[in-house]
Specification:
Layout (H helix, E strand, L loop, with lengths): L5 E4 L29 H9 L6 H4 L11 E3 L2 H14 L6 E2 L4 H12 L3 H7 L3 E8 L3 E8 L8 E6 L1 H4 L4 H10 L2 E2 L4 E6 L8 H18 L21 H4 L2 E4 L4 E4 L19 E2 L3 H8 L13 H17 L5 E6 L2 E7 L8 H11 L1
Parallel strand pairs: 2-4, 4-6, 7-11
Antiparallel strand pairs: 1-5, 3-4, 5-6, 8-12, 9-10, 12-13
Helix pairs in contact: 1-3, 4-8, 7-8, 8-11
């Protein structure tokens, strides 16, 4: 694949950075040596960014996790600007002035994550940084270490997006985005009990997904997301192999469950819904024939691991709810719950248990 990083689009004491007033130019000015539309040139500029090298982050790893949360430096804003230019996204990222309560919510959400997860983040998570208007909820990118490996990563969040919804409202909005509304069919998602249905808990679930990407960077779970499919080595990836294969002839990742979930290729989250709302119940019935724990996990191998990781930590390790309820004119027609106690997800559960024990 030729994407540069994982972005969850449209609802992804501070790090010691000198935060100067920064006004990044848009368009060709973000990559002044590249012609308009020259994606190969833009990609070279992205790869050369100091933010993708370990020297830029080295001091961050000496700090506790909570002190790695703060506003992004200009180099990160420029990287996101280039990434949007590469993909043709219209948003113009800006340095974020983070409210104290938002930063406190992110830190609290991070600190409440189970200890086995936090232990693995210590030498992998460079930072959780805030950028306004980059066009997503969360963004994760890998960092090249001293040995040329991509075993570390950083996360970017947009506080303006995060502050808008509580946990269940955010999950409901997200899970509706693949479907074109028709006024009759409704989908409601529950990821928290009423007493815990807060913005902080929404942030925590979003963060768990991004941390799944962080922990997968350079690991054995799926191919490197920065590689074009033609460049993926012929190796075994135990988690990936449960659900995917590399179709080199067609230059795509192929799901092993397209017969069981024929709608998968039309599942698009956050923008550009392709599925009719009337198909909601059928899609979730078909999803139960696969080992994908969520519908989002069926969209890409990287998101399969991140979603599996997030829903496993959230539901099994933290004992929180997960349910999708689909209604037609107010009458419930389908309930979809966690798969982690079902045989269909047993293979993925074994891998996650081994990794997080």
């Amino acid at each position: 694949m030729d994407t540069i990083a994982f972005m969850s689009r449209r609802l992804p004491v501070s790090l010691v950075f000198v935060l100067a007033t920064c006004s990044l130019a848009w368009g060709e000015d973000a990559a002044p040596d590249c012609k308009a539309g020259d994606k190969e040139c833009i990609q070279r500029v992205i790869v050369a960014s100091p933010a993708k090298k370990i020297d830029f982050w080295r001091s961050s790893f000496d700090k506790p996790l909570a002190q790695r949360v703060g506003p992004a430096p200009p180099e990160i804003v420029r990287l996101l600007t280039l990434d949007n230019l590469y993909h043709g996204y219209p948003e113009r990222p800006r340095v974020s002035i983070v409210k104290d309560d938002m930063r406190a919510d992110v830190i609290a959400a991070l600190e409440a994550i189970p200890e086995p997860v936090k232990r693995r983040l210590g030498d992998r998570l460079a930072g959780i940084l805030f950028v306004d208007d980059f066009g997503g909820t969360g963004f994760t990118d890998s960092i090249i270490d001293d040995h040329g490996r991509k075993t570390k990563a950083f996360v970017v969040l947009d506080p303006g997006v995060l502050e808008k919804r509580t946990a269940n409202a955010w999950a409901t909005w997200k899970e509706n985005t693949p479907f074109k509304p028709d006024g009759h069919h409704q989908l409601a998602a529950t990821i928290e009990k009423p007493a815990d249905d807060t913005r902080r808990q929404a942030i925590q679930y979003i963060l768990l997904h991004e941390l799944g990407h962080v922990l997968a960077a350079g690991g054995p779970f799926h191919p490197d997301w920065n590689l074009a499919i033609s460049a993926i080595p012929d190796e075994r990836y135990p988690f990936f192999d449960l659900s995917w294969s590399v179709d080199r002839r067609n230059n795509v990742y192929a799901s092993r469950f397209d017969a069981e979930l024929p709608e998968r290729k039309s599942v698009v989250y956050y923008f550009g819904a392709k599925l009719d709302a009337a198909s909601m119940a059928t899609v979730y019935e078909h999803l139960e024939r696969t080992n994908f724990p969520t519908l989002y996990s069926a969209t890409h191998p990287g998101d399969d691991f991140a979603e599996s990781f997030a829903s496993y930590v959230h539901g099994v390790m933290m004992g929180k709810p997960f349910e999708i309820v689909i209604s037609n004119d107010g009458h419930v027609v389908k309930r979809y719950g966690s798969c982690w106690n079902e045989e269909r997800c047993a293979g993925k559960r074994r891998i996650l248990e081994e990794f997080l024990r």
